[in-house]
Amino acid sequence: MEHTLTSGNVTADRPRPAKNYLNETTGLWSWMSTVDHKRIGIMYLGAVSFAFLLGGIFALLVRLSLLNPQHTLFGKQWVTAEMYNRFFTLHGAIMVFLFIIPSIPASLANFVLPMMLGAKDVAFPRLNLTSFYLWVAGAALAIGSMVLGAVDTGWTFYTPYSTTTDGAVGLMTLAVFILGFSSIFTGLNFIATTHKLRAPGMGWFDMPLFVWGIYATGVIQILATPVLAITMVLLLIERVFQIGIFDSRIGGDPVLFQHFFWFYSHPAVYIMILPGMAIISEIIPTFSRKTIFGYRAIAYSSVSLALLSFIVWGHHLFVAGESDLANVIFSALTFLVAIPSGVKMFNWLTTMYKGNISFETPMLYAMAFLFLFAIGGLTGIFFATLAVDIHLTDTYFVVAHFHYVMMGGTVIAFLGGLHYWWPKMTGRMYSEKWGRVACALVFIGFNMTFGSQFIMGGQGMPRRYFNYLDQFQPIHAFSTYGSWVLGSGLFLTAIYLLASLKTGPLAPDSPWGGTTMEWESSSPPVVHNFEEQPVFEHEPYDYRHRTVTHV
Amino acid sequence: MSTTTVDLHQDPHGHGGEHDPHHQHHFTTMEQQFDTSKIGMWLFLVTEVLTFGGLFAGFGLMQNKYPQEFVAAHEELKRWAGSTNTVVLLISSFTAVMAVLSARTNQGKKCAKYLWITVGFGAIFMCIKAYEYSADFAEGLFPGKFYSHHGDLIAGSHGYATFFSFYFMMTGLHGLHVLIGMGLMSWLAIRASRGEFSDKYYTPVDLVALFWHLVDMIWIYLFPLYYLIT
Amino acid sequence: MSTHTEHADNPKAEAAKYLATLVVLLILTAITVGASYINFGSGNIVIALAIATVKAIIVGLIFMHLLHDKPVNAVIAVGGFVFLGIFLMFDFIDVGSRTNPQPINLHAPPAATAPAAAGAPAAGAGAAADTKKE
């Protein structure tokens, strides 16, 4: 088996260190008690991958339930409406809280960000480990709730159903509460790290754009997540004490719950996408061998996205009984929030223009991101438009929209970043051939699954409905088949990535010709990241002084 | 009145020469470490502001909904207790910042003394609150569905119960933070009396004092909104 | 390592400053309590919150050292309050501007006016434009 290095190893060849962060200390306890950001990143990677698998299984079950309107397989009905409600609730809750929110920051950024800054670790290493164990605790509670009655409220826990229904809502909200603190601590750590642990000589505008994206994400995590925490507390208290805040039968306001919930959950979707965009800002210059176009524009757009994300949450409440005045204000602001995303798209494309482009797997995922996020983002504008939202809200159109941005955006970017930094983290090259095959399967499967849902939604198929009109059956079936193609691509990815750990060729320090500081360490890095304190010498994405050899 | 400076100059790391045992390796200097810790603490305090802020928002919106009931309900609260507690917390904030000053000027014993006094004021606060709660319970003022007070003017209105639901939630959560602060300060007081803090390292005292000041700040808003609305 | 060594040189002055701050805070507390006994109508809540804010700012600037610390800490602190303010502002805009739209095909007026406390208008009513009955 061989791989083709399409870009030169731009650091001088040097002997591979005998001890790296993986084998310097051994044994389970050395991992469980580690404060090394790289080990914590790897543990998180395993953890969120497990969550992705669990959430993905529920997704496959959701799609399988809808294969035909009789809900039969081989002639026998196998799923009830109650089961179906639990499937989509658990799919959503696991994917949002256990997988996608922590995914890129806690796994990839944990590993790479300190190295990009030339630091030895994050600002608060013990807090980092605490954040991981909080995730584990939250995951345990979430899985416990699945086993002990499960939840059927939808991942949004709307009241008054969630405050009055049976089932393990309390456990799940407690899990979400704990996971919130896991997220807060991660963001806190990255903000402090970015402020204080940059290498000597590295100013704010000398940092890789990945750091800007993760920093902006941290700002959102700090400001938004506490409101989720208090929302979950209020939900729990309403269930136990019936205090009458969210239930109109006892004097409450259900729309208030939605305000509380979406004040977090809208910025949360920017917690999801900003790290994805941050990865794309790294991959595209590297694989175009060209300085990023509009560095400052992208940096400022990351921060402005973070801040603007806080003033648009009402667009989730357009048909919930929000006042007309608030509707109009939120609609206008939602149009505004699309602009920074657009700025980034244009800058990435311009970066590629007249670049020296090659299409290794990370770049393929980056290209997929540009296509899929464009669709996802533009369809978001449909929902910002009040008159259109009335018709499309709570249909499959919105399901397709948010899967295009969350999966077509964040997950695709996550996969791209995973492949980009895989050699650095593991010291192994994965199989480029299988990488491309899997990327194609994922891309095709994804569009099959969710592109078709735009059509269904436009024709009026509501979301979260177990029963549906016969006319939608062909599209539902097509979407289900797409989910199998998508799932197979993802399983294939897991297989060849894990296989590379045993049989992959040893990776050089910098297989892609990347210019950011993490590539100056060995693959995998030594425990303290760098043998000597690196000094900031050249701008990121500075390809003028790089020799590039194609093999 | 000066006390010992840090005298833990064992050299376990083999650096030779001066190396503060509290110096974490990924920081270049102690000053960088201190500044970073401060930033981290302020970020955490912001999360507390947003958490309690959410409750304030809920309270405000419910008051908007039940203006008469909220005014009537607040009459049941004891103004003297709330006012005294406000004074107690303000004084405790003073003693907390004096503790930080003492630590920073190498006066470990004085620092410990101020910390213990702060804990004491916290205890006074909690005692007054405990008295208030028991008096409220005796009147049937409980949160949510357990509300069993008689004699409310607007019969059948949920506003009274809602007021007390928020009252117990917010003062309860605040009280929990007071207890946590007291616990942290007690731990620091013990460390301070052992001479662990000095002008070279007083970060924990500074950070816990910041936490305590936030607890005070939350009460500064809680007090007028619950006890003084008319 | 102290970030404000100019003050560590004179702890007595600093202690006096803290004591003076405490006195100011206590006076403001007395004013708040006193003002609550006078009926300013809807001004009462404004006065109470304004004084509370002044007290909070004083605690932040002096007791929490924001005045003399590096500015990043103050930016973080202010930022938190700004975004809390955004949450409050938009919530109150929504709740404060809700009308009570009736279905446009309603032929008879409702038997009793819905109590103002019912804050849960029908979900589909958002689709109807302003439909105040005259």
Strand content of chain B: under 5%
Assembly context of the chains: heterotrimer
Gyration radius of chain B (Cα, Å) is 22 Å
The geometry of chain C reads as elongated
Total strands of chain C: 0
The largest interface is: B-C, 56 and 51 residues
Q: Averaging pLDDT over every residue of chain B, what do you get?
A: 90
Order of helices and strands of chain C: HHHH
Q: How would you name the CATH homologous superfamily of chain B? A: Cytochrome c oxidase, subunit III, four-helix bundle
Portion of residues in helices of chain C?
A: 55-70%
Overall outline of chain B: elongated
Task: Describe this entry's structure for a reader.
The complex is a heterotrimer of chains A (551), B (230) and C (134). By secondary structure, chain A is mostly helical. Chain A contains 15 helices and 2 strands. Chain A has a single domain (28-520), classed as Cytochrome c oxidase-like, subunit I domain (Cytochrome C Oxidase, Chain A). Chain A has helices at residues 28-32, 37-65, 81-116, 125-147, 161-164, 169-196, 209-241, 254-288, 295-308, 324-352, 361-384, 386-392, 396-426, 432-458, 473-503, and strands spanning 72-73, 76-77. Chain A has a two-stranded antiparallel sheet with strand order 1-2. Chain A is globular, with a radius of gyration of 23 Å. In chain A, 60% of the residues are buried. Residues 1-12 of chain A have low confidence and may be disordered. With 230 residues, chain B is mainly α. Chain B has one domain (30-227): Cytochrome c oxidase, subunit III, four-helix bundle (Four Helix Bundle (Hemerythrin (Met), subunit A)). Chain B is built from 6 helices and no strands. The radius of gyration of chain B is 22 Å and the shape is elongated. The model of chain B is unreliable at 1-14 (pLDDT under 50). Chain C is mainly α. Chain C folds into 2 domains: 1-68; 70-99. Helix content of chain C is 57%, strand content 0%. The longest helix of chain C has 26 residues, at 11-36. Chain C is elongated and about 80 Å long. Chains B and C meet through helix 1, helix 3 and helix 6 of B and helix 2, helix 3 and helix 4 of C.
